[in-house]
Amino acid sequence: MNDQIELHPIEDSEEVTLRFFESRIQAGFPSPAQGMFGDTIDLNRELISNPASTFCARVIGNSMVDAGINNGDLLIIDKSLEPHDGDIAVCFIDGDFTVKRISIRSDGVYLTPANKQFPELHVSEESNFQIWGIVSHVIKNLTASM
After folding, report:
1. 115-141 pLDDT, tens per residue?
2. Is residue 129 a part of any domain in this protein?
3. What pLDDT digit, counting tens, does each position of 58-96 carry?
């Protein structure tokens, strides 16, 4: 499989709050900052819809880089979400966990990487296969000191 993930349960017993920058941030030309900081936001409420069925995992590998998922990123995975064609999912196949895009076709289910260096995987009827959960969010570290 080459890529792996480390799964961790999410503790939701207390709020994780950060100060919230109320002004929208331009990705084009800068705009003046007005009344910059407002309330706080609770990251649990922002990122987790179903706490009892949500887990966090760290990505190990590069098979999803073209989907913006890199080695070391944290995934928020919701096991209660219904899988659909095109979703990015954490799947258990033949004893290994992997993160791939689900592709449902007339000839079966495929696990599609987002990196041309990795092969697409056809899920055969003989495979021990389960869609373990759907990736709802990706958390990245964008600092240069990684």
Report:
1. 999 999 999 989 999 999 999 999 998
2. yes
3. 899 999 999 999 999 999 999 999 999 999 999 999 988
In a domain, 34, yes or no: yes
Q: Is residue 122 part of a domain?
A: yes
Residue 140 among the catalytic residues: no
pTM: 0.75
Give the torsion sign (CA, 101, 102, 105, 110).
positive
Is 100 considered catalytic here? yes
- On whether residue 20 sits in a domain, the answer given is yes
Choose, from 80, 100, 116, 124, the residue flagged as catalytic.
100
Residue among 31, 63, 80, 124 flagged as catalytic: 63
Number of folded domains that form the chain: 1
Give the Cβ contact number of residue 129 at 10 Å.
16
What CATH number has the domain bearing residue 54?
2.10.109.10
Q: Which domain holds residue 48?
A: 4-139
d(CA 146, CA 140): 11
